[in-house]
């Protein structure tokens, strides 16, 4: 077994038992230790490590973190959470509006953006209901993952599939093939967490997370958010047209964040408040994953089934279980390179299953890690590793089954 794969498993194991480790040892530190090991041992060279990092994702997250902090510091996040948690609302109403809100952000601005923006709102819901923050935060994880299925920009693996599939109407294709299973999964998510919220013991609620003082004006934060929405939607709609330049998401995010740095007097503070620890986690994760890919372990693992990689059962199995070991984005990238026939049903099944694979472990989706890191940044203890899996498992099973059956149904109808 290659050392890089051993390191990857070691990182997974350390994060799984983190609740028994010293409190100062954070997820980003564990991943960074893994990156240092593969670099020091020569499993990946410094130049290869730099190339392995997806700097577009890093740039996108930088802009999103700046915008999410501006929304928080200007009091906009608090206003949204106060509206969702209005006194007249019941638990299912609070859950409905919360899930609807983060799903919309996830579909338009990616699941990572929804994770960053939704974290303080989830904490506020916990404070309003008088329960531990863990449950609303886990509901946020599930909602942003399922919500990202709706659109071609919902998550990084969707972007890879769109680029490979050369769809003339990527928005329409995703809505046709994945909107129904996403909707059914969200309805089940609502019902499941309503049941869990009703049974949640009172106590252990976090303090209502609010900025110490409103240090930023609201209109730059709103302008940056609106600009990011417009840029991402326009880029998605005009994906295959020649009338607009095809800009990467990272560039769109940085452009959208410009009003914050131009019109805010708190520029230095804004840079300081960017979640640098999460950015370090992602850089380290790309390096560890790059070392695993360089070893050829994933390619060798898939090679015995090379001729059957388009079979629905195989696509589902490899996309789900492979995403737990190698992460969904590199798995999808290699899978696309090995596929012989890049037909729409196979690509949509690959997209849906690799996305839903994020609802199993904390490390299964990058958005889960963002929520953990953002919670700790706000001084709130998030969920534990196995606590997360216990709550998301029913949603995972139902959503996987629904996604597979819906794609199979559309294939049978079209034949």
UniProtKB/TrEMBL annotation:
GO molecular function: arsenite transmembrane transporter activity
Superkingdom as given in the UniProt entry: Bacteria
Keyword Cell membrane: yes
Pfam annotation, one family: CitMHS
Membrane topology: Multi-pass membrane protein
Spans traversing the lipid bilayer: 28-45, 57-76, 91-109, 121-150, 177-197, 218-237, 243-262, 274-293, 313-336, 348-371, 391-413
Localization, UniProt: Cell membrane
Domain spans labelled Citrate transporter-like: 20-332
Keyword terms: Cell membrane, Membrane, Transmembrane, Transmembrane helix, Transport
InterPro entries: Arsenical_pump_ArsB, Cit_transptr-like_dom
GO terms under cellular component: plasma membrane
Family statement drawn from the similarity comment of this UniProt entry: Belongs to the CitM (TC 2.A.11) transporter family.
Official protein name in the record: Inner membrane protein YbiR
Gene name as annotated: ybiR
